[in-house]
Amino acid sequence: MTEKEQAISPEVFDHLVQLAALELDEQQAEYLRRELNSQLSAIRELEAIQLDPETPLASHGVPYDEHNSPALRADEWQACADVDAITRQAPQFEDGYLIVPDIPHTTLE
């Protein structure tokens, strides 16, 4: 496939927008489609780089060892001095709990 054949067409993009339930005007949609195609083009360029077959998949160019990386700090629990100041910022707080709204969802068939 050529690069043009691999690009996201307006029809495919419209379908993806519908699946994601996005509301985009024509200008926003075209801008986003161009940006996505630019990202795909950059990914294709990266895929074209020849790698040594012995290179592990999760490898990167910066080694992480005790000689060139600082030691990890220990996690330390620290109590908040003013819990009320924090909880007053929450939209809903009841009986010591932050109340969050249900996330609406639909069941896929």
TrEMBL record:
User: Transferase: present as a keyword of the record?
Assistant: yes
Task: Please give one Pfam family short name.
Answer: GatC
Q: Which InterPro entries match?
A: Asp/Glu-ADT_sf_sub_c, GatC
- What keywords would UniProt list here? Transferase
Q: Which GO terms describe its molecular function?
A: transferase activity
Is Transferase set as a keyword in this record? yes
**What's one GO BP annotation on this UniProt entry?**
regulation of translational fidelity
Name the UniProt record assigns to this protein: Aspartyl/glutamyl-tRNA(Asn/Gln) amidotransferase C subunit
Species, as recorded: Pelolinea submarina
